[in-house]
Each structure stands twice: as C-alpha cells, then as structure tokens.
Amino acid sequence: MSANGTKKHVATYTADDPTQISSILQGGYHHPLLRQWQMEKQLTKTALIYPLFITDDADEETEIPSLPKQKRWGVNKVVPYVGTLIAKGLKAVILFGVPLKDGTKDPYATSADDPEGPVILTIKALAAAYPDLFIICDVCMCEYTSHGHCGILREDGSILREESVRRLAAIAVNYAKAGAHCVAPSDMVDGRILAIKRGLLDAGLAHKCMLMSYSAKFSGNLYGPFRDAAGSAPSFGDRKCYQLPPGGRGLARRAIVRDLAEGADAIMVKPSTFYLDIISDAAELAKDVPICTYQVSGEYAMLHAAAEKGVVDLKTIAFEAAYGCLRAGASLIITYFTPDFLEWLDEN
Ligand code: PB1
After folding, report:
1. What is the pLDDT of residues 276-298, one digit of tens each?
2. 247 Cα: distance to centroid of ligand 1 (angstroms)
3. 69 annotated active-site
4. Is 220 helix (H, G, I), strand (E, B) or coil?
5. Which residues line ligand 1 (CB under 6 A)?
6. CATH code for 44-347?
7. For tag attachment on the chain, is the N or C end more exposed, with fewer CB atoms within 10 Å?
C-alpha cells in the first residue's frame, strides 16, 4: 500500500497462468487497420460482378419491385448507366436477357441468341462503349422458353439432355462471337460444359472466351425476385430435377470435379450465404481456378427487407455477407450490391 493509502499496481504475471500471455488476442485487432490486416482476403472492386437485366425494349428503364434498387434496362439506357458505374470502378457485368415482346418465347429458346435480341445487342454496345469492361453472359434457356425451364423438354416434362446441350452450346458460342469475354451456363444440364468448350474451340474462340460454370447451383427458395424480373419462372413443376438438392454436398463436389474436367475455367457456387461449405469445397477441389459465388436475388432482397425492418444495418450486413463468401474461399462475387460496394469501398 502506498503512503497515501491507494493500492499500488503490481504486475501479476505468473508463468503458469495461461490467461496472462498466449490467450491475449485483443491486441491484434484493437484498431480498425488491424482488423483489416486480420482479413486473409479483402473485398475489392475487381472481385465484384454486377448482374444486369436487359430487355427487348431499347429505351426501357423499369424498377423491379421485389429487387430493391435494381432495374430492367433497354440497351439505350443500360450503356450510359454502366458508364456511371465504371467511373466508380466497376470492372465486370453479367447479362441476363429478358425478352418481353410477344412471340419471343418457344420450346427451344430460339430468341436467346437472336442477333437483334437484347443480349447480343448489349454485348456489342457495351464492348464498343467500354473496351475494358469485362462482359459475362449468363447462358440459359429459361428466360426464352415458353415453358420456363432451363432446357428443351421431353413429352414427360423432363430435360432432353442431348438436344438441350447442343442448343446451349450454340447460344454460348453466339454470345462469344458477339464479343462476350465469358459465358456462364446456369442451366445445370449434365454435359453442357464439355459441349460449350468444344463449341468455343470449333469456333476458334476458346482462347478468348472464359467458361465459368455454375457447377454447384442449388434449387430452393432464393430465386423469386430474379424470376419476377426475368419472367423466367417455370410454367409447371420446378427445377429440382436439374438444380442440386440443398442438402447435396457430395453431388456438388462431384459436379465441381466434373465441370473442371470438362473444361471450366472458373467454378461458381450459387446461392452464397447458405452454401459457404460448398464454396469451401470448391476452393479445395478447384483450387487452381477462380471461385465465384452468386449472392442471388432472394439473399439480396432478404438483407434489404431486414434492414427496412431495422433488424440489420444494410451496409454492415452486406459487407459481413461478402466477408463470409471470401473467407469460405470465393475470390469473385456476383452481387446486386455492386453499385453500393463501389461507393462503400471508397468510404472505408
Ligand atoms: O439472382 C438470382 O436469383 C439468380 C437466378 C438464376 C440466374 N442464374 C437462375 C435461377 C432460377 O431461376 O432457377 C436462373 C436460371 N437459369
């Protein structure tokens, strides 16, 4: 006890007390910069891929009620809009065609690669306006088929694999011919990766068009807002016989290994937050190629809804979801938050 009666602080380190040294972690993250240093992967603008819905009305710019802050764009409107995002650091987009005109849908998705259709016109317009923009095209049939499924159907409503794969490969090659830097088949039909890679090779385009496979894409309840936006809901049944079952981790592992062997240059896991273990599996099984994950419309809309209810802070939860994807092993994130992240990343 000191002269004025206050207790003198005496260091009380004892060698045999584990709480004194090795258990003290908080010194490693007490400062905001330290918390950045503790992150194995940082979220950067180059990791972001922005989904765009392109319709066949060239001057359309329509809000999507179930997908906050997202729009359906005509080619004349999307080009200037993308320019504002490129000015903030956007590097990559993924295009989804949304044909709304009568007569544009049939059982074979004939309009998917219409040279005058929204996707091919937009590839060309964006490539001409922004030569450095990386343009990915989703390859699927559901937006263009009268039945709303992702392939050509048999009489019994099941996917006719061979004909679907041939059609999907033709669509992919035509997008590549139009200037797409990457094609990303989201159909989940067995064998489409090999067929698309062969199609790109035969067209002399395999060296200049990346093939990103939605290898581990799960059926479930998280695609509703997208289907609203794209008008792509199946007219009957569901996609459970060609998208993976949510509990099918082994199936996802097998699909990842298969697609890599068939020539995929990148592997995608979709959705994201509910499937971080699958992202981790992909990073293990396909460790030598980029791993992408898609924060799908339902995930995005749920975070917005929670923020509107005051349950979460939108910016904070968006970053937390992204960190989860990066921590699990993704290096690329397709997210509708891209325009926000382009601004938020400049604020931090
Ligand atoms: O944001 C999303 O929900 C993406 C939806 C996704 C796009 N690749 C599909 C989901 C679905 O409708 O099954 C489209 C499938 N081709």
Report:
1. 999 999 999 999 999 999 999 99
2. 18
3. no
4. coil
5. 138, 140, 142, 150, 186-187, 223, 226-227, 232, 239, 296-297
6. 3.20.20.70
7. N
Q: Residue range 187-200: average pLDDT? A: 97
pLDDT in tens, 46-90: 999 999 999 999 999 999 999 999 999 999 999 999 999 999 999
Tokens of 38: 């503790």
Q: Two tokens at 288?
A: 């030598």
Closest residue by Cα to atom 15, ligand 1, is 186
- Give the residue among 245, 248, 184, 186 at the shortest CA–CA distance from 219: 245
User: Residue 138: what residue type?
Assistant: D
Q: What are the tens digits of pLDDT across the range 224-264? A: 999 999 999 999 999 999 999 999 999 999 999 999 999 99
- Separation CA 172–CA 182 (nearest Å): 9
CA–CA separation, 324 vs 111, rounded Å? 38
Q: How far is CA 150 from CA 90, 108, 167, 238, 343, in A?
A: 29, 10, 11, 10, 35
Q: What is the pLDDT of residues 144-190, one digit of tens each?
A: 999 999 999 999 999 999 999 999 999 999 999 999 999 999 999 99
* Rounded distance between C-alpha atoms, residue 304 and residue 320, angstroms: 14
Note the pLDDT of residue 24.
Answer: 86
The residue from 77, 91, 105, 217 that is catalytic is 217
Atom 10 of ligand 1 has which residue's CA nearest to it? 223
Distance between CA 119 and CA 197 in Å, rounded?
A: 20
Which tokens belong to 244? 């993976």
Give distance in angstroms: CA of 225 to centre of ligand 1.
Answer: 9
4 vs 167: which has the higher pLDDT = 167
Size (the chain), residues: 348
Other CB atoms within a 10 A radius of the CB of residue 118 amount to: 30
